[in-house]
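Re: beginner question about structure tokens

> Can someone show what the tokenized structure looks like for a real chain? I only ever see the sequence side.

Sure, here's an example I had lying around. Input first:
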Amino acid sequence: MKAILQRVASASVTIDTQLVSSIGKGVLVFAAVAADDTLKDVESMAAKVLKMKMWPDEAGGTWKRSVQDIKGEVLCVSQFTLLASTKKGSKPDFHGAAGGEKARELYDQFVSKVQKLYEGDKVKNGVFQAMMQGWMLVNLQNDGPVSVDYQSHDAEVTLEIQTNPAKPPEKSNVGAETKAENKSDYQLPPELLE
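And the corresponding structure tokens:
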């Protein structure tokens, strides 16, 4: 999944002049489902939306509080165009986006997961494929402006651990009474463990 998270003072979705959803202070999430996305991507994205530090704290420290910390609201809007490829020519290519049913299923699971992880009444939704059904307007008052681009694939970390590594051949040191052992400890950075 790919998302653009925008810190907003307010945001709303209108379809054919009818207001569908609106929020006050919080995060507007434009989300796209990629062709190779799975439930794991949905869960990663939902957690990241709620944990992303986009607001200052009371002492003025920047990037200290999440939407949950400020008790803000979340408005999710499906936007497959985030996955456009513009490598060739001037016409966007959307082959990286998931097809209709898969995209709908994973997007709905994403919104549902955000609601479950937070207060359901503070999480609003646009209308999936609304652009295909009629005219859609997303109105926002950007706070900052602050916009963050995130892809669920960014959260992937692969570690290979050899439990029985081959022992290196011993070198003889003539006259040496002891052999120095080469040890090193490695710890993952805390941000990779979140």
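Each token stands for a local structural state, so reading them left to right follows the chain. Confidence is low (pLDDT under 50) at residues 178-183.
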